[in-house]
Amino acid sequence: MAHQPLTIVARFKAKPGMEARVKQDLLAMLAPSRSETGCLTYDLHINLADPSMFVLYEIWQDQASLNAHFTMPYSKQIAKAFEETLVEPYEMTLLQQISQ
């Protein structure tokens, strides 16, 4: 049985005055995350209407790859930083493509 890739859309809302730090922390995640086994896409976006809102668009080969991503030291480190820098817990939407 073939594994279906998983698409993640994760939204991060920075506290006032923390926008630059959240951006820096998220940018620091790109290279290590992209080098992980099973990472197909890992791109950071900013909301043009609200520069305190960041969105990660990710595609992972399968659930096991995504699970492994969350065990990485840098994933744990940024999760801890988010406790100080985000207005609310980040929102992660798990999607699966059904058309091409």
Description of the molecule:
By secondary structure, the chain is of the alpha+beta class. It has a single domain (6-95), classed as 2-Layer Sandwich (Alpha-Beta Plaits), CATH 3.30.70.100. It has helices spanning 19-34, 63-71, 73-85, and strands spanning 6-13, 39-47, 50-60, 91-95. Strands 2-3-1-4 form a four-stranded antiparallel β-sheet. Helix 1 runs antiparallel to helix 3. It is globular. The mean pLDDT is 95.
Which features characterize this protein?
100 residues; alpha+beta; Alpha-Beta Plaits; 3 helices
Q: Mind summarizing the main beta sheet? A: 4 strands, antiparallel
Whole-number total of structural domains: 1
Class from helix and strand fractions: alpha+beta
The average pLDDT is 95
Q: Helical segment tally?
A: 3
What is the third-level CATH name, the topology?
A: Alpha-Beta Plaits
Could you name the CATH class?
Alpha Beta
Distance between the termini: 20 Å
Q: What is the H-and-E element order?
A: EHEEHHE
Q: Which spans have pLDDT < 50 for at least 5 consecutive residues? A: none
How much beta, percentage-wise?
A: 25-35%
Please list the strands of the largest sheet in the order they lie side by side: 2-3-1-4
The number of E-state strands comes to 4
Based on the coordinates given, report the CATH architecture: 2-Layer Sandwich
- What percentage of residues falls in helices of 4 or more residues? 25-40%
Report the radius of gyration as a whole number of Å: 14 Å
Shape, principal axes of CA atoms: globular
